[in-house]
Amino acid sequence: MSDDLRWTPVGKIAEWKEGDGRPIQIGARRLGVYLHGGTFFAMKDICPHAGVSLSQGSIVDGAVMCVGHGWTFDLKTGEVARGPGGYKVATYPVRVVDGEVQVGV
Ligand code: FES
After folding, report:
1. What distance in angstroms lies between residue 87's CA and the mean position of ligand 1's atoms?
2. Does some domain include residue 53?
3. How far is the CA of 46 from the centre of ligand 1 (A)?
4. Do the beta carbons of residue 21 and residue 34 sit within 8 Å?
5. CATH number of the domain bearing residue 80
């Protein structure tokens, strides 16, 4: 993780339940921030297929399922887990400081 990142607070830990995904706006970026397996993940919130908000979907086998057409995107890598290959969604580092969830952009 680079020290060049700008860490932006996006909420308190208690605001997420296991399996939650919440849409977050950081400047011009639309992200989804997820809690899965006790770990936070952040991913661009725009499906590369047809632009649907990925954070509306549920998490299946460590991947977010798009409610548009069912493609899934790995929470760790952003790569398509189920659907056509060659697509990827940007991911961002997440840290927790004093109970506050922060995303590095
Ligand atoms: S819009 Fe996401 S799979 Fe089609």
Report:
1. 11
2. yes
3. 9
4. yes
5. 2.102.10.10
Q: Which atom of ligand 1 is nearest to the CA of 66?
A: 2
Residues 45 and 64 sit within 8 Å (Cβ to Cβ):
no
Give the Å distance between the CA of 56 and the centre of ligand 1. 11
Inside any domain, residue 21: yes
Query: Of all atoms in ligand 1, which is nearest to the CA of residue 71?
Result: 3
Q: What is the block-wise mean pLDDT of the chain (105 residues), using blocks of 10 residues?
A: 85 97 97 98 98 97 98 98 96 98 97
